[in-house]
Amino acid sequence: MDPRDELWANAMRAERRGDGVAYEQLLRDIALVLRRLVRARLARAGLSVHETEDVVQEILIGLHAKRHTWDETRPFLPWLFAITRYKFIDAARRLRREMSNRVEITMDELAATLEASADDSDRSMLDLDRHLAILPQGQQRVVRALALDGATVRATAEKLHTSEGVVRVLYHRALRRLTDRARSDNLGSPAGRP
Amino acid sequence: MMSLSDTDDLIHGLARQAGTRRFPSAGAFRLALIVATVAALCLAVVGVLLLDGVRPDFAAAASRAPFVYKVVCMLALGLGGLVMASRAALPGSGRVTALALVPAVALLVFRAATDRSGLSLMGNSDVSPFGCVVTILAVSLPPLVLLLGVMRAGAPTRPALAGAIIGMLSGALGAGAYALACTNDAGLFVALWYSLAVLTMAALGAVIGRRALAW
Hints:
The complex is a heterodimer.
Chain A: H1 3-16, H2 20-44, H3 52-65, H4 76-103, H5 107-116, H6 120-132, H7 137-148, H8 153-159, H9 164-187
Helix pairs in contact in A: 1-2, 2-3, 3-4, 7-9, 8-9
Chain B: H1 4-15, H2 26-51, H3 58-61, H4 65-89, H5 102-114, H6 129-151, H7 159-178, H8 187-212
Helix pairs in contact in B: 2-6, 2-7, 4-5, 4-7, 5-8, 6-7, 6-8, 7-8
């Protein structure tokens, strides 16, 4: 048997005596193992590995809530496995549902897209303006000059009365901000749904 | 998205609750399940007394084989259900296997096969099998609610299966209690209609358990 079984079983018994320190160490050890396991299983299931930490936390909370159901006279690992498996399947089901909500195409969206397809270029410029609006003024000007107008870094620096180094820093900050925003939009509420 | 430090905070918070819980141990949960099963049987008996009352010839019938058979059979089924429920509620405490039901099922089949009484499969004229099944279902509902409540304190990793087991257990208790009122003594009658009632309860338990026992 895995030597960890005895180690972790002892920590579980210590928890029952109210030993918070031993229990905290146990949860940390288990979290380490879960993190690796969950990440691998999420990837294999075609789900986002960004959710790993969320799923690990759900498993830990489940384990904590049901810790009285472990029978001290029995090995610990089979119990842990059963709890982990249950909570993982539960989380995977939820993630899959969220994913299908996110990729779902509604009739309204299709209609809106058909209407918009005539003035496509205008619309995408509007979208771009909306996205750039989250940036501070300086970053907005740099992105417009470099990415939209196709100006060189030197020309942009001259136009904005600043150095090439500052233009580069502003540009990278703007890009990071835009990608962070795009990611949180995708992870948050089902994007694009009415 | 949550970060590693969130998880550390979470763990720290959980660890502060060390030593506190609803049930002190798996053993206490088992005991609670047994006590609840006895209480559920009492509920079913009360239900039968309120709905039907005992059979008119109870004093004479109580010591005869058909009555004893009905009660023993259903209690054996209940006992098997109790073993299965305990395992379904406590992860890693052993496989949830229908082997626990073998004695009860063997008894049912044996009695049905060797029944020479010649009594009707459809029961006595004044009590239809339908009424019998409905009564068993009715008196099995309070036990179902009670036992599902206890089960929620466990950690069933297959909620629908756990619900089905609890439904079967409740049905067996209800059917056992119904034997007090039931005037149909044919072995086949019991094997068929009591079993139908118990299976219906199992199906109901599975449907409810799928939601109610998820955690």
